[in-house]
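Work Package 3 (structural annotation) set out to generate three-dimensional models for the target panel prioritized at the project kickoff. During this period the team completed the workflow that converts sequence records into discrete structure tokens, so that structures can be stored uniformly alongside our sequence database. As a representative example, we reproduce one entry of 149 residues exactly as it appears in the project archive.
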Amino acid sequence: MPDPRDILKTARERARKLEASYEGSVTPAEAHALMQAVPGTRLVDVRTKVEWEYVGRIPGAVEIEWNVYDKQRNPDFLAELAAKVPKDAPVLFLCRSGGRSHAAAEAARQAGYQDAYNVLEGFEGDKDAQQHRNTVGGWRAAGLPWVQS
């Protein structure tokens, strides 16, 4: 298992290159390693309920929609986050491919979560040449734990 300090250092460097306000950006494999090695680390899955139900779930993830099904921003996101995740916990945000989780990590940082990270590639990754997900990057393509609902 990679050293968590090395993962976090690389994550911070990535975030600075992206000019993100949050602490860092990690790959799915790095996120999983941090969850195993750093006590209290929380993975927050910000996809929609429909995605959790029909695409799959990550065991142990905190599920809080960033957008509700009609693509409107969840007005209760930060309140739900505060109710489920302590502000002093390292928190990793994950969505389908890394966009919503980037925005969620930015919002969390602004709300006082100092150890907020974006999970690059997300759960499904980018589309491949055939316009399919789950083959190019992402939590599932990395072979990390997930379940079908």
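The chain has one domain: 4-18+26-119.
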